[in-house]
Amino acid sequence: MSSLTPHQSTPFSKVLIANRGEIACRVMRSARAMGIATVAVYSDADANARHVREADEAVRIGPAAARDSYLKVDAVLDAAKRTGAGAIHPGYGFLSENADFVTACAEAGIVFIGPPASAISAMGDKSAAKARMHQAGVPLVPGYHGDDQGDELLRAEADQIGYPVLLKASAGGGGKGMRVVESSDGFQAALDGCRRESQAAFGDQRMLIEKYLTQPRHVEVQVFCDRYGNGVYLFERDCSVQRRHQKVLEEAPAPGMSEALRREMGEAAVRAAQEIGYVGAGTVEFLLDASPSSSQEQDGRFYFMEMNTRLQVEHPVTEMITGQDLVAWQLKVAMGDALPCTQDELAIRGHSFEARLYAEDPAQDFLPATGHLEHVGLDLVGAGLDPLQVRLDSGVESGDEVSMHYDPMLAKLIVHGDDRSQALATLNRALAALDVRGVVTNRAFLQRLASHPDFQAAKLDTRFIEHHHDDLFEVREPNAEDYASAALVALDQLGREGASDSPWDRHDGFRLNADYRIRVALGASRAPDAEPVIVDGSRPHDGAPWRLSIQGKTLSASLQRLNGDAVAVTLDGHRRRLLASLDGNAIVLADTQGETRLDWLRADAVDHGQHEAESTLTAPMHGTVVALLVEPGAPVEKGMPLMVMEAMKMEHTLSAPADGQVASFLFAAGDTVGQGEVLLEFTVDA
Q1: How does this protein assemble (predicted)?
Q2: CA 329, CA 121: separation in Å to the nearest integer?
């Protein structure tokens, strides 16, 4: 890199963040630390969102749909002019990689905190970017990146490359418009689905095709450039653990990297950025061959995948291992400063992980969830965690709503340790201490990922979740101790509800001149049709422990409330610290070993009806009908796709519950439906 150039200032005192949620709050934090005022923009769905509450000023820019608000260039620019904001930070997603938006900012005299429009255009079209990288000598995965987008030609190219292949939106990112195709027979259906997703997310249906490596690692390099030709790399991140081509767990540095390979990839990433005149924060993404035949520390077989011309979701792990504030770097470079550090001044310190907390149900194919967040909390002190080693970047707080209109990510949990083993232990403890109620989340799934032996051994590739599906999606059967612990939580709740001077108003098993006696019915949340487990409890009036009878065992049991939702459960003298909470009718118990969720079948909540074969299908989420896949009256088989819904920028296919026929669809393509609404009438074959 060239020597640093003296400061040349283009100051601004107020920045508008053209985004929402976690990243908007994150940018505000660094801006405030630098004495820069902040402006939020919001849609109708976000009128009381956290990023709006935390900003110095906020401006409404349109209805809930992103296309009518966060993607409206004129509305965002009008908000900046109205508030006197001298700069706009785009965050990630939305307008962050829109070259026309960058040009519009320049024409309005507003600083865009990011690269020039020419750099975004050079890398935004993935086909053109790969051609340019090929000319620059950057290794590429075999594939097709041409302009001819005819169905037959694309299929022929895929056949020639050899299956499996990866279909990918040319203008895309974030896993949208991307699917693995295993054979020629499934190519057309995958192509149609990718085009729909790409059109919805980017307004562009062009596809590229790549050879799908069976065991690649996803390793990306954080680069930073200024306007004076200086460029550095802030080392690499491993983002191999993904679902639907979207990252779930990230870490820095990437395990198993030799210093030679780290330097080779880093220097290649800086060359790629400087080739297109890049300025600001960017990420060059590579596939690193992780197959058994590849010794990546010796031959360094890596391939350019794409460059993200913005700040990445996973940037905090880089901040943790370098001690640098990347958002502050962005603001300084946008003001005209040279880079704060040279390459020789950057060093790796320890290890960091980031876990993405989503409002989604992993057991239901990661179905997005919406609803009211009753509670969001992370008790670091109670869990014995160092606040300097654990960070929660969140866009929500207790009482907020999770909308159907946007990405379902709620927060990012970031941890640091002296080495990978220590950081991983901290991650597991922090996940156990993370308490989110009101919507289903992937927290327990993240725990199973982080504690899996192969993840702990850093045996990583981009199909990690697929390879270990049975382990990761297996729900542990509750044992007698789990049911007893849940019963204690229920009894504690009933005791608090029944705190009354009148025995007629009590619900805690009170008996006049006799021991307390009460029965608690509990059911496994994942097996709603199973017979409930009955826990019989009794205890004397003197406050002695409960005697719980369950599954042929009798236990001496007591519960002590600690800070927040933390409790100490003692069963026959064995004391355990748990995070215990009520989530609707479910009792949720969490510790470092995972999560147990049991339905509390209280007398006023028990459903005595038997589940019968479904004759209708209901919407599993709020969303939009994308396509109807069969004709009413046509015979269908169980499991056959019937219609496609879209929510939170992801597609979900609803399938036939049995052999039969669709009597009628109750909605058309393009209609918005609410969670639980009946979508179609279905007749089951006799």
Answers
A1: Acetyl-CoA carboxylase is a heterohexamer of biotin carboxyl carrier protein, biotin carboxylase and the two subunits of carboxyl transferase in a 2:2 complex.
A2: 23
